[in-house]
Structures are given as structure tokens and as C-alpha cells.
Amino acid sequence: MKEMTLTYDHLWQFANAVFRKINCPEDQARLATDVLLSADLRGIDSHGIARLSGYVRLWEVNRVNSNPDIKTVHETPSTAVVDGDGGLGLVIAPKAMEIAIQKATQVGTGWVAVKNSNHFGIAGYHSMMALKHDMIGMAMTNASPLVAPTFSVERLLGTNPICVAIPAGQQPAFVADFATTTAANGKLEILQRKNQEAPEGWIQKKDGSISTNPNELKDGGALLPLGGDREHGSHKGFCLGAWVDIFSAVLSGANYGPWVPPFVSFLSPPANPVGEGIGHFFGAMRVDAFRPADEFKNHMDNWITRFRSAKTVEGMPQIIIPGDPERESHAERLKNGITLNQKVAEDLKELGSKLNIAF
Amino acid sequence: MKEMTLTYDHLWQFANAVFRKINCPEDQARLATDVLLSADLRGIDSHGIARLSGYVRLWEVNRVNSNPDIKTVHETPSTAVVDGDGGLGLVIAPKAMEIAIQKATQVGTGWVAVKNSNHFGIAGYHSMMALKHDMIGMAMTNASPLVAPTFSVERLLGTNPICVAIPAGQQPAFVADFATTTAANGKLEILQRKNQEAPEGWIQKKDGSISTNPNELKDGGALLPLGGDREHGSHKGFCLGAWVDIFSAVLSGANYGPWVPPFVSFLSPPANPVGEGIGHFFGAMRVDAFRPADEFKNHMDNWITRFRSAKTVEGMPQIIIPGDPERESHAERLKNGITLNQKVAEDLKELGSKLNIAF
User: Fold this and answer.
1) Domain-by-domain residue ranges, chain B?
2) Contacts of B76 in chain A (CB under 8 A)
3) B242–A108 C-beta distance less than 8 A
4) Does A232 contact B228 at a Cβ distance shorter than 8 Å?
């Protein structure tokens, strides 16, 4: 079996059947499938259907609750804390974002911290939910520790992504969705498959020295915060990752830093948890809580147009506005299908056999 | 005249007298002085008294209004837009932050966008105002364009700093205050004075090629977004700078991107403004809008203690928690005085002579 290209609908039916098989209620299975596959459509392959068997394995060891009672445990007019009851982050996150949007409708902005959750797919899905309401959306999450702060040899932070989605008028929305490391883990996986070296500044060895080996994490190495080293601002990348960790988990009551449970089922969560599950943080801000929405969107169109038309370095393409590549991928893959690499295709086939679902 | 060391009180009296001389009301002069000198205390020399003569020159050409009518022009329970009436950002910013804090007191969080302002000193001062209320504080501002987005040869963004200040219990607060570029402009000024080269990844030449010349900006070069180049994540630094620009200026109605007026009085603002003055954005979130403040602060203490005690790369100092270096500088300089380099000392002496204030 080599790589395979399948339609979005085909993969959607498969993933949905898998979520139903692990006893997700019908509406939650649909939501989880939508969120999961939005990653594949947007070209963020590391966060899409490639993770499906991982979610199932977490459910098998009772670390994912497929029928959670998701509830608000504390709130003010503009804030809430949601307890995800150990459910799939794919389900908990959009429900928490809906609460942020409701609060923004009422008082201008809404901010929701989530505890007792699991991996939530791509941050972009959740923050983009705000766009159709003429709101700015924000989403962030902590993740299992793979990143060494500046000067540290210990892995204390996850790749802790942030997404900010900002509506425009005629132009497509501005959607900045990025890990707070120099390179996301998915980038390393691509190099591993191609047997290529990583650039300096992405990873370090177990002792903190420079490495270009994309397999270094297996030997106790670490990803590096955005910036790579102190001279190039890695302390700022550390600030960003720490900010995400604290908003997602110290505000909500989830596990933070080195206590965040691992995504993989074969590694046990730390024995002395400081909170419940992993944490997320969501925000929604009504644009017209600041100025009339049309006025704002006209200026966003002007901002985007001006930046996109900037003079480029010779031989370089036009300036990329955050969200451009993902939107192009979405259109292309919806039309031409989603290509799975050999390893993912085999993994899904095996999953289908195990659960008796045709792949 | 070589470098000079003066006490905080001495410099405070001088700066306050200068602000009074340009007709700032007494309370506003005091506030502007407090904010300005907090930069010198915290070791961010580029944003402190070194800029005083620059503010005066902007006032001389009628680009700073020393007696502004600062007012809220739009609001919801959790948001406000403040029109700074062309005043000093040093005065407008803390007043806007007060509004954010008031709103957070009422509805959990408060978010204030500011237009028609000027340079606001260090973001840290404003966000740290939240700490004594057991709130998380955020501050950001756009600035005159010196930064080229990834692939661009045009300077379209400022160094656009962000600060997030988070209260702790026994431990000092977490205060991450950083420019969204690889290196802040102040770092280049230090290299210029020492006649040293900059590392690769900080700046580019006019044509977008690599430069290590700290004077490159005078020849049309640009600072680079955090990350430095595409391979090292400069598109993420661009996302951050763009986010700050849009929150500060497109939400508020200030100038954004290449339209942001220059700080220096000898350069004219763009002839076709898209908004009023420069823009800022502030946030305050009550910790107990999420969980009991004591509980939160205990976990912050645990977070900080765990990260600070992490195992370091051999020969490296302990892990630096955001805010540590600035807090140490504050204590040291309050005790031993603030050292001004020769150029700044001469500039202030000249300013004193011009305004008839003893330096």
C-alpha cells in the first residue's frame, strides 16, 4: 500500500463511523468529525485523520470519555470555565467557543477557559467559528511537553498553538494559526519520512546542544521555542508558549507545563497531576463592540490588500497573508481529495479492520 | 561629558519639569514621568528618558497635544474605544488601562482599543497596573514601520510589542514584555554604539538580502519579524506583529501598517492617513472570573518554581522567568541610580538649556 487519495466525504463517513463505534453520541460524532477533518482540508495533516487511531487508543485505555457531560462550572458576564469531563477536545472546544460567542453577543466579548479536556484538533477551526458573527475569534491550547525553554534541557511546554481569526469584507479573513515553536512537530515528521535533516534552530539534543536530526526527540531531545536560541529571541517564543500554558491551564484548573498528559496512549500521565486533563482558552470579540462592523471590515480589506501587494524580495512570491495557504488547500482538497501517506493509510486500514468499519 | 549616573529622583524631577514646561497639566505630567522612567528602572533604556527630547520635538511641531481631552467614544459592558485627542501615549495608555480594569471589575474582563495616541513608553507599565487588582493585564501598541514581513522588502509594521502580566502569590508576577521582532530597535542602538555587528536574522538590506550591519535601517533596510527567516518561523513573527497592528489600530480607528506616523519629528506623517494617530490595545481579566484568586496564585507559584528550577544546559544560568531581569534591574537602579550614556546625557543637558530647566 502506497499513498492514497480519498474524497473528503469518504474520509468523513469513515471517521464519523469510528467516533460512533466508540460510543460518541450522534451529534458529538458529527462535530468531532467536522473538526478533525478541517485539519486535513486546511493542509495541517499532522492534526487531522492521521490522529484518529490515537484518539481511539486513548478511549481504549479510559483516557477519553466518549459521552462526556460538558458543563460550565463558573462564570461571569464575560467569562466562563468549562469542565470537559474528559471528553474529546474535538467536541469540547467548539462547545466552549459557542459559549464565548454567546457572551460576546451579550457584553461585547467572551472568554472561556477549559479544563479536563483532550487534544482539540486545529485551533483554526474554533477561532474561525467567530467569523460568521462578525467577531474576532481566538483559540489556544496547551499540549504534552516537547519544548525546552531557553537554557533548559528539560521539556516543559507543548507546542502550544495560538490562533487569531479576524473577519474582513471583500477579502478572505485573516487567520493566523501557529505553534509557538520554531517548527511544529508535523514538520519534523515530514523530514523523518523524507530522511532529511532539520535546519539549526528547530531542535536540541538531550544535553541542550544543537541538533539537525529530526528523530532527536526520541533520544530525549527537545523542540525549541520560536526564535531557536537566545540570540534570535527564543526567550520570546518561550514567553508565548508560557502565556498559552497559563491561560489554558492555570486559569482553568487543567494540568500545565510538565504535568500535561501525553497524547500517546502508551505513555502514562504524570502520577501527581496538578489539575484535570489538558486545557484550552477561547475568546470572541464583537467587532462592533469597538466600531461599526462595515467600517472595520473595509479597513481590514485595505490592510490585507496593502500587505498582499507589498514589493517582494526578488524571485519571491507575493506576501502571504495569514490564512492564505490553508484556504487554498481547503479549496483544492475539497475538489481533488485528500492524499494520505502510506503510514497513515495503513494505520486507518488497520483501524477499520479492528472496528469492523470499511475503509 | 561621558556617561553619567543619576538618581531616579533626580531624573524624575527633571522629566516632570520638562512635561510641565510643555504645558502638561500637573497630574498628567506626573503620570507621564512615572511611565517614562519605569522604562529606565526596568532596564529598557531605549524607551525611557532617552526619548524625552523626542516627545518635546513632537510637541514643538504640534504632533503632541500636551493637554488632551481623553474620552471614551464607544463602549459595551466589556469594551471601550478611547480617543486620545493626540496626547502623549504615556498619559493616554494608563487612563485606558484604568477603564479596562473598571470593566473587568464589573463584568469579569475589560478590553480597550485606543486611537489618536502617540508612543506609550513600555507596555509593561500598563499591563502591570492590573496585578494589584488580582487581574491579568495585557498591553500592545503599533509603532512606525521598520519591519519587513516575510518575503517583503517594504517596511510595513512596527516592532509592535505585546506584554502579558500575570499575578502570582509568593513568587513575583510573570511579566512577558517583548517586541514581536527578533531583536528590538534598542538592541541595534547598543551595537551601533559599540561598533559591533548584529547576528544574522535580525535585519535585512534594502533588497531583502541578509545583513549584519546595525546601521542598515538608515540605508533602507528593515528589522525582521521574530524567527528571522521563513525557515525559522518569521511568518509567525509576522502573524504576531500583524495581530498587534490590527487590534491596536483597525479596531480603534488609528493608523495601521505603513500609515503609522513616525516617532521622529523630522519625518512627516504619511499624507493620506487611514486613521488617527497611533493605536494601542489593553486588556484586564479578573483572575477570580475563572477560579478563586488564591487557588490561581498558588498554582502560579508552582508553575514559576517548577520552571525556574528546571535543569539547565551545562554552564548556563537558571531558567529565566519572564519579568526576572526587569525586576532585578528595577531594584538595582532604584538603589544605585540610572546610568545614561554620553549621547543621552548630552541630549538631556541640551534639552535642559533650551527649556531653562537645570539638568
Assistant:
1) 183-221
2) 107-109, 286, 289
3) no
4) yes
Instruction: Kindly list the residues from chain B whose CB atom is less than 8 angstroms away from the CB atom of residue A240.
Output: 176, 240
Low-confidence ranges of chain A (pLDDT < 70): 1
Q: What is the pLDDT, as a whole number, of residue A199?
A: 94
Distance between A219 CA and the closest CA of chain B, angstroms: 16
Dist. CA A130–CA A127, nearest whole Å: 6
Chain A, nearest residue to B318 by Cα: A151
Q: Which of B108, B156, B202 lies at the smallest CB-CB distance from A307? A: B156
Q: Which residues contact B155 (CB under 8 A, 6 or more apart)?
A: B145, B146, B147, B148, B222, B223, B258
CB contact under 8 A, A290 and B79: yes
Choices 3.30.60.50, 3.90.190.10, 1.10.150.120, 3.40.50.720: CATH for B183-221 = 3.30.60.50
**CA of B273 to nearest chain A CA: how many angstroms apart?**
12
d(CA B206, CA B204): 7
- Decide: A14 and A359 in contact? Cβ < 8 Å: yes
Render pLDDT for B255-281 as a digit per residue (tens, 0 to 9).
Answer: 999 999 999 999 999 999 999 999 999
Give ipTM to 2 decimals: 0.98
Domain A183-223 grouped into CATH 3.40.50.2300? no
Q: Cβ A109–B113 below 8 Å, yes or no?
A: no
Give the three cell numbers for residue A359.
475503509
- How far apart CA B181 and CA B164 sit, in angstroms, is 16
How far, in Å, are B25, B32, B36, B57, B120 from residue B19 at the CA level? 8, 8, 11, 12, 14
Integer Rg of chain A from CA: 20
pLDDT band for B1, please (50, 70, 90 cuts): low
Give the model's pLDDT for residue B187: 87
CB contact under 8 A, A317 and B253: no
